[in-house]
Amino acid sequence: MTYRHQILRNLRYGTLPAFLKLQQEKNELYTAEGLTPYRVWAPAFGGLHHLVLEAEFPTMSDFERQHATAKTITRVAEINAAQLEHVIEGTAEDRLQRLGLDA
What we know:
alpha+beta, 3 helices, NIPSNAP domain-containing protein
């Protein structure tokens, strides 16, 4: 069983490069701590940037461990706050999906 965490954001016009630079730094911190970095894909529609960050985890326990460990990295919290400055208020959404079913 695999779990996919998706972070969906609508960014203010023109802020995609700054958001992506922050995500790159966060992914480097994750990698240095042995955590799973997030892939980024960002289709653009009109004046908005719809952005998706996603990562897969083999178990729910692995996802929870990543979340708990990331909270201990001070710079990650600072990056999260800086990224939210680029997000259109009220558009932030997260999803956790279980991929596959047990027989």
